[in-house]
Design a protein that fits this description.
The structure is a single chain. This protein is an all-alpha fold. The longest helix is centred in the middle third of the chain and has 27 residues. It folds into two domains: 71 residues, Orthogonal Bundle (434 Repressor (Amino-terminal Domain)); 102 residues. Helix 6 runs antiparallel to helix 7, helix 7 packs antiparallel against helix 8 and helix 8 runs antiparallel to helix 9. The two termini are 19 Å apart. The chain has nine helices and no strands.
Amino acid sequence: MDELKLVVASNLIKLRQAAGMTQAELGEKLNYSDKTVSKWERGESIPDAYILTRLAEIYGLTVDELLHSDSDWKPVTEAKAPVERTFSSAVVTLVAIVGIWTMAVIMFVAFWVAMGQLQWLIFACAVPVTLVTWLVLNSVWNAGRHNMLIVMALVAAVVTLVYLFMLHYKWQPWQLFLILIPAELLVFLCFHIRRRKS
C-alpha cells in the first residue's frame, strides 16, 4: 500500500507541474483544499476513486495510468487534442462591456434627440447589466475567480439604481443604503459556504 501511495504521489506531482498548476489551483478544480493535494503528493493518503477519475480526466490519462509508475504508461491512441482558444477571453469580455455601454450611449442620444430630455439613468442601468455580463463571462473563462467581488458590486449597483430612480421621482430614501450592509455580508458568507474535505 505504501508503494502505491508513493507511485500516485510521484505521478500527481509530475502531472501537476507539467500542467503548470499550483496545488491550490488543482485543489480548486477538484473542490479540495491545497492541504489535501499536498497530502496526496507527500504520499500520506490516496484520493478516492471519484477524485482519481477527475484527475485522470484533467490530465488526459486513465485511472490505471495514475496508479502505475509513469514508465509503465502507454500512449493513448485517441488522445484528445487540447482545445486551443483562438481568441482572448479578456478581449471578448471587453467587447461585450463596450457593446453594452455603446447601447447605453445610443439610447441616451435617442432620448435626447426625440424628447429633448437627458436620461442619465440609462447609464445607471448599464452598470448592473455590465456586471451581470462580466459575472457570466468570468464564470465561463476564469472558473469564477473573483466572482464574489463582482456580485458584491452588482448588489451595490442595484441598490444605487433603485435609489436613483426614487430620486428621479423626488423621493430621497437614503435608508436604502442600509440594506447594503447585510446584503454584502450575505454575499460574502454565501461565497464561503464549503463543505470541508480532508
